[in-house]
Amino acid sequence: MLKSKTFIKKTRSGGVMKIVREHYLRDDIWCGSEVCADCKQESTVLQGDACIESNLCAYPHYLIPDTNVVLHQIDVLEDPVIRNVIILQTVLQEVRHRSAPVYKRLKDIIHEKEKHFYTFTNEHHSETFVEREPGESANDRNDRAIRVATKWYSQHLKTSAPDAEGLKVVLLTNDNGNKQKAEESGLLVYKCEEYIKSLIANPELVDCLALSNDDKNEVTSSKVLFPEHLPLSRIQAGIKSGTFLQGTFRASRDNYLEATVFVQGEGEDTTEVLIQGLQNLNRAVHQDVVAVQLLPRDQWVAPSSVVLQDEGTAKDDDAEEEEEEEKALRISAAEASRKPTARIVGIIKRSWRPFCGMLNTSQIKESTRHLFTPADRRIPRIRIETRQAATLAGQRIMVAIDGWPKHSRYPNGHFVRSLGGAGDKETEQEVLLLEHDVPHQAFSQAVLSFLPKMPWCITPEDMMKREDLRHLTVCSVDPPGCTDIDDALHCRELDNGNLEVGVHIADVSHFIRPGNAMDKEAANRGTTVYLCGKRIDMVPELLSSNLCSLRSNVERLAFSCIWEINHKAEILKTRFTKSVINSKASLTYAEAQMKIDDTSKNDDITKSLRGLNKIAKILKRHRIEKGALTLSSLEVRFHIDSETHDPIDLQTKELMETNSMVEEFMLLANISVAQKIYDEFPDCAMLRKHPAPPPSNYDILLKAAKSKEVEIHTDSAKALADSLDMARVDGFPYFNTLLRILATRCMMQAVYFCSGMDSDFHHYGLASPIYTHFTSPIRRYADIIVHRLLAVAIGADSTYPDLMDKQKQSALSNNLNYRHKMSQYAQRASVAFHTQLFFKSRGILNEEGFVLFVRKNAIIVLIPKFGLEGTVFFDKKDKAAPNLVFDEEGPSLKVEQHTFHIFDRVKVTISLDDSNIQHQKIRMSLIDPVIPGVSVPVPDVEPQAKKPKLDR
Amino acid sequence: MATVQVSEAEKVYILHGIRDDLRVDGRGCEDYRHMEIETDVVSNTDGSAKITLGHTAVLVGVKAEIGKPRPLVPNEGYLEFFVDCSANATPEFEGRGGEELGTELSNTLYKVFNNKHSVDLKSLSISAGEHCWVLYVDVLLLQCDGNLYDAISIAIKAALFNTKIPRVHISSDDEGGKEIELSDDPYDCMRLDVENVPCIVTLCKVGHRHVVDATLQEKACSVASLIISVTHKGTVTCTRKVGGGSLDPESIYEMTEAGKRVGKALHAPLMKLLQQEESLGTKRQKVGFLG
């Protein structure tokens, strides 16, 4: 049967358009129930014995939630207890329209077999389709459609499932009007809260309930704390006319009363607008898209450099208020350089996600309302209701925000799930993965289904299309313990006296075909994330550690880049080919180094390595002559106890000649490939650039160098590299490294981009006009794209539309850049956490360090031994601040009588401050130089700290 | 336009019949052929009607769009006519064959509606000088069997009657910027008053007499015809003479009088019929093009 759906739409140009869609109704849509005898369905989803212990519904029943229940109570629906639910198409469509994240979660639940969620396409069912009536709003129609479908189900089950006695359907709705109408037409209907509370066996579900509107009213006093948000139509009109600005809200990490809004202007430029004070912040949460109105110029303020943390507790909302206002005033009084300041008038899009954090249990024992403190300081505290406070205290939990009414000091939320005890390694790891938005779930069945069948072997067809390089003496050099080996090398002498050097990269694109579930998952993950003692793979392990990994003495598929090079390291010929290799050895850097150094050895592998090493040295010299930077950042390596997985020692990574040898050839391969794919596809090559930093970035470096009377030139990369090489201070061998660390901090982030969307390709750090990533396809998705491009360029593989679409490429590179950044943050956070664990086991340590930065009220100290950076504060909450004079030009900080400069040598004690279990941190205090009232006495270096280790 | 070949003997037969007020198909001189009207036949227009008159078939669609008012009449909307002579109607229309006729027909329609009374153009205004509704009246000839003008005008009246214009209101914000807002109820719409929309009556001079709704054969016997557009009150909004022959003043007067009489008689049952159809609402069984 054909019906047409008509609706009227406003077009972008301001016109009005009538749109008519054909809508087909069918009579072969089945109910999905196991017990139904009438429906001719092939497989059923809903169980016959849909029993759940409830004191409202003692009979077996299916649930039909309405749209708002799904939108607000998705956390409840996700609970494994809730099964046998019918999701109507009407509901699904409305959810999709209103919230993409909830829609995705709902789809995930529906796909989960154990949940028995059934989608009933009621809109296309000839008996449940309803047409909108005159005077009926769209929402009313949908509610009616839901009721009609529920009615149909209850009658259908009655007539066609005579065996299943008393099987009923229950409609869940929170809308009073809808409920009343449903009751009138004789349906079983409950409010979601009513129903969940009736589940006797599962009281913990009640905590997951999101607060609905009527609940909120009773929670707080009627006192209005915040100005009303403007409706979206007003906001849009305001943005159009220029009275409001739209931007992304970024809360300040250090001051909960301050935030910035990044307003996207014309083209590339963004302006920052400052927001200060609770009223002006007006319930915006970090990362929301907001509309702001600029304040008159005389109300502009400067960003404060004060650290303010919201320490208030739940009960004394009112008393707190004045205090806060006072604080806010103090901030505005201290201003010197004013910035554009604004207030938030409305929220355009919330970007609430479940937040990790911990519960602050209420002082009142029986209270069920508690405040939740998120791990991310930029997120406000959230008020939640739970009966399990006693169990949840001391655990890391996840909480979702439900809403933020204007009379409530804190947003309201509900408990989602517990992650485990705070301080546990697994829990903390989970937290840092979640907080850095790192997809870390196990790979889904859909993804795994695209893995090659085991046992896998190279087929004759593969051999036909590939060059057989199995006879070459290929070997790989990697850090110890590496299982995802994505590169291998070879070098041999040719008959004409030149050298043939090959870089062989795992051929991941052979296994991951464009567009399938595995490809999509890898594209989303973007990169493998390495945490201390854990690796979150981008591709399933079978590929990353086995089939793609170029292990020794097995045949593997590779993508090879082969050069003919003369002894002056000039490249005579470059060619790319898909190949089959058989690595002769998987070496670690140290092993490779030993082979090269051991003059007694003269086997093929060693000869090959020596050849490589020789060429690499020349290549490196060339590169440095061209102005490539050698920068420095300290990387830390933990020695992990094999049983407890606790870090037992900490050392900075040591670099060997072989590290640089491998690196040199990887750079060469990347540059050669970048050139090739750019030549072939000038519009859609995926490249990587490293923009030159703006001159102002170097200020700190220049000032620091000047303080030691060293001159640094920053006009070009070459000048910078040369002057860094020249920078030496007698009797201070570590100076150069410190300077390089500082220089690293001045740099910009390198990013992926699509060549058709940008014109500046230069890689500043490597001093290369073009660059890309080709050599690590197992752990980076960008490399897979580059492999595909190169394969198309040499005719080894076919292309597909998305590969040639520069918009899509550009969107992909944005995601890769984001994932890459987040994975680095996660990595750093993981190192920081392990450092804390280490210091926890070691107790107090006294170490020597260098001043890296000087701030207004603190110095930042680097401990080279541990690669650890820490802050020594000179003002403390409970003590009167010492006399501090900060000189910006130096920069130097005079504390009482002593002046600190950058690079000063100091001695500090390091200990773990676990007063705040959520934010444990390394605390450093000054021992030397001794400043009365500031430095601390040298603590006994712990015989007791060693003890626990010896006891074990 | 479609023509038929008529022999001398046939002509005489037709002429003599008409002289005695008895036409070949049995009608009197002022009778129309059987007429069928259906409205709301094209769902993606805002109003539509289909008419068959004898074998003449015409489809009219009305699309309402927001446009800018004409500078001379800032507080009125306007109508645009376009007549498409489809090659379906007759092979002569193929290519650009129908263009000339189409232009002629649409020019006539502009003239017919070029007065203050036919349609209340003020009701089409949204905001004076800025926005107004423009009604695009598209006529499609599906089959030609004589008397196109009358069929088209009746179909237009029916289509305008059926037209539902979405209701909009102007919201103005603090800065005086105006925004058109659309009601989100698809049933919330504005109807046109079509009471005064005229119908065209074409009178063909055959011999000494004149007939309405001439068939192609009768047309072939006629030297000239007079097109008169008449409102339900009998007001004539436009007259035109078409055809090669000439008409003497006396017969023009006679024909005009006859046209008024016939036109008045045409309006009343037409309106009744349209209202009757409307009252059936969504339960009406649609006939469409296959019925």
Automatic annotation (TrEMBL), chain A:
Belongs to the RNR ribonuclease family. It is found in: Cytoplasm; Nucleus, Nucleolus; Nucleus, Nucleoplasm. Keywords: Acetylation, Cytoplasm, Endonuclease, Exonuclease, Exosome, Hydrolase, Magnesium, Manganese, Nuclease, Nucleus, Phosphoprotein, RNA-binding, rRNA processing. One of its GO terms (cellular component) is cytoplasmic exosome (RNase complex). The lineage of its organism: Eukaryota, Metazoa, Chordata, Craniata, Vertebrata. InterPro entries: Dis3_CSD2, NA-bd_OB-fold, PIN-like_dom_sf, PIN_dom, RNase_II/R, RNase_II/R_CS, RNR_Ribonuclease, Rrp44_CSD1. Its main location: cytoplasm. GO terms for biological process: CUT catabolic process; nuclear mRNA surveillance of mRNA 3'-end processing; rRNA catabolic process; rRNA processing. CDD domains: PIN_Rrp44-like. Its cofactor is Mn(2+); Mg(2+). Signal peptide: none annotated. Residues 61-180 form the PIN domain. GO terms for molecular function: 3'-5'-RNA exonuclease activity; endonuclease activity; RNA binding. Component of the RNA exosome complex; within the complex interacts with EXOSC4, EXOSC7 and EXOSC9 of the exosome core complex (Exo-9). The catalytically inactive RNA exosome core complex (Exo-9) associates with the catalytic subunit EXOSC10/RRP6. Exo-9 may associate with DIS3 to form the nucleolar exosome complex, or DIS3L to form the cytoplasmic exosome complex. Exo-9 is formed by a hexameric base ring consisting of the heterodimers EXOSC4-EXOSC9, EXOSC5-EXOSC8 and EXOSC6-EXOSC7, and a cap ring consisting of EXOSC1, EXOSC2 and EXOSC3; DIS3 associates with the base ring of Exo-9. This is Exosome complex exonuclease RRP44. Pfam families: OB_Dis3, PIN_4, RNB, Rrp44_CSD1, Rrp44_S1. Residues 466-796 form the RNB domain. It comes from Labrus bergylta.
UniProtKB/TrEMBL annotation, chain B:
One of its GO terms (cellular component) is nuclear exosome (RNase complex). GO terms for molecular function: mRNA 3'-UTR AU-rich region binding. GO terms for biological process: exonucleolytic trimming to generate mature 3'-end of 5.8S rRNA from tricistronic rRNA transcript (SSU-rRNA, 5.8S rRNA, LSU-rRNA); nuclear mRNA surveillance; nuclear polyadenylation-dependent rRNA catabolic process; rRNA catabolic process; TRAMP-dependent tRNA surveillance pathway; U1 snRNA 3'-end processing; U4 snRNA 3'-end processing; U5 snRNA 3'-end processing. It holds the Pfam family RNase_PH. It is found in: Cytoplasm; Nucleus, Nucleolus. Keywords: Acetylation, Cytoplasm, Exosome, Nucleus, RNA-binding, rRNA processing. The keyword Acetylation applies. Residues 32-166, 196-261 form the Exoribonuclease phosphorolytic domain. Gene3D superfamilies: GHMP Kinase, N-terminal domain (3.30.230.70). Component of the RNA exosome core complex (Exo-9), composed of EXOSC1, EXOSC2, EXOSC3, EXOSC4, EXOSC5, EXOSC6, EXOSC7, EXOSC8 and EXOSC9; within the complex interacts with EXOSC2 and EXOSC4. The catalytically inactive RNA exosome core complex (Exo-9) associates with the catalytic subunit EXOSC10/RRP6. Exo-9 may associate with DIS3 to form the nucleolar exosome complex, or DIS3L to form the cytoplasmic exosome complex. Exo-9 is formed by a hexameric base ring consisting of the heterodimers EXOSC4-EXOSC9, EXOSC5-EXOSC8 and EXOSC6-EXOSC7, and a cap ring consisting of EXOSC1, EXOSC2 and EXOSC3. PANTHER family: EXOSOME COMPLEX COMPONENT RRP42, EXOSOME COMPLEX EXONUCLEASE RIBOSOMAL RNA PROCESSING PROTEIN. Belongs to the RNase PH family. This is Exosome component 7. The lineage of its organism: Eukaryota, Metazoa, Chordata, Craniata, Vertebrata.
